[in-house]
Amino acid sequence: MKGLTERIKEKLPNHTIGRYDLLPVLVDRELSDDITEVLSEPYEGIAEVVVAPEAIGWILGEKIGARLNIPMIPLRRGEKLPYNSDELYSVAFMDYQLKRKSLEVAKDADLRGKKVLIVDELIETGAQIKAVMALLEKFGCTVIGIATIYSIPSVRTLRWKEEGLLTAITEEL
Length: 173
Fold this sequence. Notes:
33% of the residues lie in helices and 27% in strands. It is α/β, with parallel strands linked by helices.
């Protein structure tokens, strides 16, 4: 699995604006499988469910859930689920562009008391992951880890790394 970061860099489009497009990385089956293996390994036999925010996080989250043989519960952006608001848990946050967003999940999602692995393809400021954690608190979950391809060093991500929560392939793209 040597050179995983270099293989990721080779797949990144060099013409994107403002952030990395990791879809070409996930489309490469061999590379995607290697990433999935590395990100899944620390959580084998520990995680009971994967949770991933919309939308690209779902791709990686489903692959990791399948590898760990556990369910993946997708989190939706606000006002996308076909439920009444009293049937949903919702958490608002400011994204990396300082835009107000929210994530939501049905209150009857099978998350109560579970050991959860949060998966997203990239973490920029950590605001979205912090919102995921706040949403999971409503279910009494235990977050056992955060898995990502790319994590930009920040106060939050460095703290999560020091606490042993964050597993990231790279901080250098």
